[in-house]
Each structure stands twice: as C-alpha cells, then as structure tokens.
Amino acid sequence: MERDCFQFVRKCHQCQIHSDLIHSPPLELHPMSAPWPFVTWGIDVIGPIEPKASNGHRFILVAIDYFTKWVEAVMFKSVTKKAVVDFVHSNIICRFGIPKIIITNNAMNLNSHLMKEVCEQFNIVHRHSTPYRPKANGAVEAANKNIKKILRKMVQGSRQWHEKLPFALMGYRTTVRTSVGATPYLLVYGTEAVIPA
Question: PROSITE patterns per the record (predicted)?
C-alpha cells in the first residue's frame, strides 16, 4: 500500500511542484525549546527571490520566536547590516521586549559589528548556526519554507508577492503548529483570531 502511494504521488504533477525539497535523510529531531515567550528568536533571510517584486524587493528578513512560533517578516531590496539592526529594534525589542538569545547563521549582514553592539547594549546572547548544520536554527528554516509555500500558492508566479506577504503571515500565525499544538496567535494574544474561514 505504501509503495502504491509513492507511485501515485510521483505521477501527480501538482504534488511534484509543491512538494517539500528534502536534501538530507531524516534524523531524530532535537528541538530547541524556549522556557517562555519571546526569550529566543531565530533570524534568517529568504532570497534573492526571482522574479523580484514589482516594487523591487528581492529579500524577506524573517524572525521566529522559538516558544510561540510567532513570525515577523519584512521585505527589502537588499538586506543591509543596518536594516537587520533596525528590524531587531523595531520588530523584536520594541514589540516583544528584550530577548535573551538571538540565533542567526553566519551571513555577514546578520553578524555585523552593528549587531554585536546591539547584543552587547541589551545583554543579548548571539548564537550562530553553521552552514554545515543549518538545523541548529531549524525553527526559522521551517518558517521560511512555510512562508515560501504559502506565498507560492497565493501568487503563482506574479510579481505582486510583496502585497501578499502580510496575508501569508496571517495565515501562518493562525494555523495550528504541530510542535506546540496551538496557533501562534493564540499563544501570543490568548484568544483565536477572527478569520474569514
């Protein structure tokens, strides 16, 4: 029966287009848990996105809270060191308080002297995931994959994806995350969102 299912999926064109691209064999999961909301954030960049949006944006800077799985995302034409620091100030610190830990990969724009200064100023521990082990920042990698999948289904090749990003975030925030068994919206606000469905 399982073999028949595999054969069916291989013949389905839509399944092949929208399937997850898994490049490594499955391993035992070792989730990084956070003891309370907004204590640990993972930050990463999606892009460059082709085709670029009609307003010229090609990148999405994404941050996810490890406890609630709440996602913040902003679009940019280019993700500069200053843009990353401004994002941390306005979208994390000013909205959710000072985190204890921020996890990024080793990209230059995410590990600049400006970022180091912000982390020292607010006493934030800045951890890095290596290129050889991106799953060390697995929550944000999973969020990136889901946001791209949602946008792909909403836009279908259009250059207007920048207009759909807020709706994609709303969809992500109001969908039950299996890792926590609740929606990020519920964990952040204590009530479910009123949505069209």
Answer: INTEGRASE
**Maximum distance among all Cα pairs of the chain, rounded to whole angstroms:** 58
Sorted by sequence, the CB contacts under 8 Å of residue 112 that are 6+ apart come out as 81, 84, 85
CA distances from 68 to 51, 82, 124 (A): 32, 27, 19
Q: Give me 120's structure tokens.
A: 């020292």
Residues of the chain with pLDDT under 70: 14-34, 130-137, 157-158, 197
Q: How far apart are CA 19 and CA 14, in angstroms?
A: 8
pLDDT at residue number 34: 67
φ, ψ of residue 22 to 5 degrees: the values are -105, 115
Contact (Cβ atoms closer than 8 angstroms) between residue 42 and residue 139: yes
